[in-house]
Amino acid sequence: MTARDLLQQRYTLPNGDTAWRSSPLVNAALEGKLVLLDGIHRVNAGTLAVLQRLIHDRELSLYDGSRLLREDRYMRLKDELQMSDEQLQKR
């Protein structure tokens, strides 16, 4: 498993465009759920480095260009920009 597979998978739409599908790990982070990383000891050390930012900083940059932010930074950004959740997610 590569670092990219751990976070998102690229797939092709019927019209030939490519899109990204979030992994169960990213979905769990978005929904505030726990993840059991069974067999993680078999994963390449470079792949594990991707997890450090998510676990330690509670933030992550994804391959589709979106970012996961911890709650306090998200709320501060929302207040500074005077935007709704929907507007921030589109951005």
TrEMBL record:
Pfam families membership: AAA_5 (PF07728)
Protein name, entry field: von Willebrand factor A domain-containing protein 8
Domain ATPase dynein-related AAA span(s) in chain numbering: 1-75
Encoding gene, per UniProt annotation: VWA8_5
InterPro entries: ATPase_dyneun-rel_AAA, VWA8
Ranges in a coiled coil: none
